[in-house]
Amino acid sequence: MATTQDLLPRESLLWIFAAQFVALLPQFTQLPLWVPFAWAFAVYWRLEVFRGRRDLPGRTLKLLVIFLIIAGLAMSYRRWFALEPMVALLTVSFTLKNLELVSRRDAFVSLLLAYFVAATLFVREQTIPYALYGLLSVVVITAALAAQMGSFSARPRRALGLSLRLLAQATPLMLLLFVVMPRLGPLWSVPQDTSAGRTGVSDSMAPGDFTRLSKSDKPALRISFDGPIPPPEQRYWRGLVYSEFDGRTWRQGFGVDPRNGGRVYWRSGERPLPQVGPRYRYQVIQEASRTPWLFALARPVSDSTEVGETEDDRLVKRTPVYSRFAYEVRSWPRDTDSVQAPLSTAERRRNLQLPVEGNERTRKWVENLRRRGLGAEEISTQLLARYNREFTYTLRPPALGVDSVDEFLFGSKQGFCEHFAGSYVFAMRAAGVPARVVAGYQGGEWVRGEQYLLVREYDAHAWAEIWLDGRGWQRVDPTAAVAPERVRDGLESAAGEEFMQDSLLPLHRIDVLVKLRLQWDMINYRWYQTVVSFDSERQRDTLQRLLGDVSPLRMALLFALPTVLALLGVLAWIWYSGRRRKLPPAERLYRKFCRRMARAGVKRDAGETPQDYAERIAAQKPRLATLAQRVTDAFERAAYAGESAALSELRQLLRWRLASAVSPAHKRELVGS
Amino acid sequence: MSVLRNPARFLTDPLRGAMQRWLSRRAPRSRSITLNHSRLFILPTRAGLGFLLVIMLLWLLGTNYENNLVFALTFLLVSVFVVLPVHTFANLTGLRLQLLGTSPAFAGDFAEAQINISREDKREREWIRLCWPPEEGAYLDLCAQASEDIRISMPVVERGRVQAPRLRIESRFPLGLFRCWSRIDLDVEFLVYPRPISAGPLPFGGVQTEGDFGEVRHGGDDFSALKAYQPGDSLRHVAWKQYAAGRDLYSKDYECRTDVRLWLDWALLDGRDVETRLSNLCYWCLQAEKQGIAYGLRLPSVAIEPSLGPSHQREVLQALALFPKWGS
After folding, report:
1. What ipTM was predicted for this assembly?
2. pTM of the model
3. Do the chains contact at A574 and B89, CB–CB below 8 Å?
C-alpha cells in the first residue's frame, strides 16, 4: 500500500517525464508516429490526475488501452523478434506505466526502464553525437532518480549537480572496468535493426544506382596501412562481383552470391595461399552497411572473426554489418601470384552468360571485330579506344530504354561508371571472353598526413574483370579510358562542376570547411579506433602496452592497486567523519570542570544536565557548592547565550579557583570565598 | 500461543534477542549519540537490486550486440553503484542526536519525544528519516541550518514508565538505491498515564470523614438550627410544627460534617480491577480539571490534597501512572 510519503509529488512526476522524454526523443523518429502521441497523451492524463481534474484510468480502461497498443504494435511491426519492436515495446511500457504512476516504486521502475531505453540508442548508432546524447540522457535520468528524494533534491540545479557529481566520481572506475573487463562474444544471436535503408554498394547494379551514391559524402571505409601503400591507380576496393545480366540489371547470380551457392572459405588456410608473402597489410573500418559485403584489394585474406573469403577473391562477413566493423586484411595483388588454375567449365559458362536476345547492335559490332580475327585483348583495346574517343563521363547520364547497352554505346554515349562497366562486360561476353562486373570503392582521401585513407560513398565504383588464358582474371576499368582523373584523383576532379551539385549547400567548395570536415572525420576515426572497436584483441594489446606482460600477477596489481588506494582513502575518511569534532570553548572548559569534579569524587552521570549536576555537587560536597553554581551559570551563559564575558569568567574560574579547589592545601581558602 | 500462531517466531525470537544484545553492546544507551561507522549499517534497497538487474540486462545487451558504448554505460552504472554507498553513509555519519525531552501521554495515544539533530561539519544532509519502526516517523533535512529539533511519536499501550525501543534513523540519499541506517538508543522514557475510561459523573460528596477535617455542609442529616424561611427553600424543610404554633415561617437547617471537597478516591471504585480503577480516576481527573473543580486523589499509597491547575493535574496523573502494577 502506498502511504502518504510514498505518493509522488509534483516535482517527482515532472522529473520522471523529463527523463522519459530525453530517453525517448531519439527513438521517436524511428517509432511509428502514434507511439510518441500515445506517450504525450499518457503524460497529459497523468498531469491532469495530479491537478485533480481526472481520475487514474480504471481497470477496464487500462485493459482496453493495453489491447489497443498491442494491436497497434502488431500492425506496425510484422516481425516481433527484432530490435525496433523491442524498443517500441519498451516505449509503450513507459506510456502504460505513466497511467499508473502512483508510488515511489512505480517511479523507480519507470526510471530504471529509462536507463535501458537510453542504452538501446547505442545499438543503432555509436557515433560521437550519439554517445554525447546518451551521456546527457544518463545525467538526466540519474538527476530524476535523485529528485525522488524530497523537494530539496528536486530543485533542478541540485538534482543535476548531484547527478553530475556522482557520474564524475564514477568515471575513473568506469574507465578501469572498460579496459579490463573481459568481452565475451555474443551469447545468443540477437535481432538486428533491419528497417533502416541500406547504404553503399548494393546487391545489384542497374543504370543509375551509382549515380545515387555519388551524391553522398558519408564515410564508407577507413583504411590504415601497416607497411607499403598501394599507388592511387591500384586502390580498387572490391566488394561485389556481378555475373548475371538480365538485359538491364547486373546481379551476383547463382554460384557467386554466398547466400546462393557461392563458396566461402571461413577458416584461414582452407584455401591455399600464394608462395610469396602478402604485399599489403591493412585494417579496414567499415561503416554500417546492413549488408555482409566487405571491401578489400584483390586476393584478400583476413583472419578476423566472422570474415570469410569467397572463390572470386572477395571478403564477406557471416552476418550483415549492422554497426561499424573492423577487419584486418592481407592482400596479394594478382601479379604476385604466378600460378593460375584454369577456369572451370561452370565458371566459364557463368561468366559468358548473356540474355538470349536484346542489344543486337552491340552483338553485331562485336561479331564484326571477332570476324576480323582480333583476340580478347585486342577487342578490349578497341572498345576502350572507342570509349576514349567518343564518350563523356557525366554524373547526369540520360535515361536509357530497353536495349540499354545499345543505346549507351551507339546513342547517348554519356554515362557513369556503371554504364561503362556494364557495356564493357556485355561486349566482352558477346565476344566470347569471360568477363564480370566488379563493384566496390575506388580511391580514397588521405587524412592527417597519411594516417588513414578515408573512402566515402561517392567513391563507389564499378569496373570489369576479364579472364585471359594463362594470365587469369585481369582488372579493366573502362571508366579510366574516358576519365583517367576519376581513377587518379577521384570523383571530384573527374566530375568537375557536376560533383555534389544537388547538395543543398556547396560546402565542398569552401576550403576551410573541407578541412574542418576532415578534422571531424579524424576525431571520429580516433573515437572508433579507441572506443567503439575496442574488442578482446585490442584489450589484450592495451593491457600489454600498460603492463608489458599480461600475467595474472600484473592484472591483479592493475586491479588491486587503485582499489586498495581508493579503499584506504574511503576508510580514512570514514574514520575522520565519525570522530568527535573540536568542541566549542565553553563546552571544553566545562568538561574540564567535570573531570576535576570527578577527581574530587562527584562524577557527572551520562545525560545529567549541568544544573542537576551542580545541585548534586552541592548536596554531596557542600564546600564546592558556590563554585559549582558559579561555573555552571557562567557555562550556561557562555554556551547558550553566547556571552563572551561569561566565557572569560568561566576561564578565569577554572584557571585558578578550581585548580586550588581540589588541592587539599587550599580547601580553607576556597570555603571562605 | 504466539509460537503456534507464528511458527517463524520460534526461530526469529532468539535471533532477535541476540541481535538486541549485540546492538546494546555495540551501540550503548546514551542521551546523546554521534553517528559513526561503528553504528551505521548500509545495504542496497529493493530499488538498488532493481538497478543491479538493469545493469545485468545492459551487460547482456552490450555482450550480444558487441557494443562498446553499451558496455561503457553498463560500467558507468556499476561505478555509480560503487560510489553511492559512500554518499549515503556520508549523509548520516557525524550527525549528533540528542534527546531534548519527552512529553507524557495517555495509554492508547501517541507519546512524543523531542530530539535535536545537529551536524558539526559543512556537508548538507538530506532526507533523513527518524522513526520507531512500524511508524512512519519524521523526515528532515539539514541544509541551511546546522541543527534542528524534531518530534517523533510512537504509540504507547501500557501506563507507567515506558522505555522506548531503539530509534531508527535512516537515509536513502542520494538515489534511493542504498539505505544507510542505525538503531540508536537515546534512553527515551515516556511517562504514560492510564487510558481515561468513563466512570460516570464526578463523585461529589461521596466521602465521609471523621473528625473535623471536612467542612460543614448544609443539607445533611443532622438538624442544626432554624432560620427564617426564604423563598426557594425546600418545603420539606419548613418547620411546620413551629408554623402551626403560630410562629413565622421557619425552615429547618440541617448540616453534616462531611468532607465536601471532591476526592477521587480509590475506594470509591471497589470491585473493579486495578487498571480500570486507575483509568476511571484518570477520567475523573480530566473531567474535574475541565470543569474547574478542585479535586484531590486518594490511592492506597498516596494522597494528594485537592487543588486545581496544570501542575496539580500533572502530579495526580503521574501518581496514577506510577501506581504499582498488578503483581509487581
Report:
1. 0.76
2. 0.67
3. yes
